[in-house]
Amino acid sequence: MIELLDLKNDVVFKDFFGDKSNKEILESFINAVLGLEGDDCIEIEEFLDPRKMRVEVGKPSTFVDLSVKTRGGERYIIEMQTYNHDGFDKRLLYYLGKDYTEQIEYHYHQPTASQALNDKKAKKMIGWADLPRVHIIAIIDFHRNRKEKNGILNHHEVVETYRFKPQISASNEYIFDHWKATIVDLKKFKSKPVNKLKTDKEIWIYILNNAPFLKEDEIEVLKKDPVFQRALERLEMLSADPKTRKAYEVSVNDQRDHLAIMEAAERKAHKEGRKEEKVEIAQALLKQGLPVNQISEATGLLSEEIEALR
What we know:
Layout: H1 10-17, H2 23-34, E1 44-47, E2 66-70, E3 75-81, H3 88-106, H4 113-117, E4 134-140, E5 159-163, E6 179-185, H5 200-210, H6 216-222, H7 226-240, H8 242-287, H9 292-299, H10 303-308
Helix pairs in contact: 8-9
Protein name: Transposase
Organism: Candidatus Neptunichlamydia vexilliferae
Pfam family, one: PDDEXK_2
């Protein structure tokens, strides 16, 4: 049995859920996470080019992991995030707004014979009322606060959906119903034995959290469901592919380097912050007329540093 790759890894996540020939895998995940059943279940009509969602604010530029359009015309953005960074919530809002407005550029008529000959497409004029809904699903695997270790969300639910609501009249909710954001907080999920998983949502979150650690007997239990059988066979195929494994290892090393840089920056900022506190204390003690050697002993600053503060 080959060791399965971590689904939370950027390379594996995109290849696993972005396979057009196995779109029912992503359909199952979206429907399970959002609790959609029966006629409400989504069907993916098209995988969109995620590079259209490129963010050029910083370098290197980034774009969403996956973007799809359903048969009902709605758009779903799927994003996996394994580390916290400033502005994460604003980034989700940016993606929602950018995808919503880009739909104006997206819709086209089928080209006429002459247009096809010239390899051109005629834009379809759509009204504002025709703009479909946009929903972002962000899967996160980091703590909001390292000290509290309580995930990114304040509430205890693993999956929470947010939408815009009017402050005064509930009758106007339909105006604000076109943008939704669902956060799947993997840190909040309490693991349990495979045979105790009751819903597809629990199974998906369990696989996301534990793919590299799944045992053979657990995989056999999960494969009893046709969708999860196909999903795990897809993950097994990716895990056995040398090119995918190499890209996976490069991605893991890049992420480790990034985290190391972030932690080093935090330590430096903390150290500099403590230095500023010591300087303030030394200045206060100088004003009180204490000798330099006593101030040095109290603050840990060098005598030369304290003399320079006079």
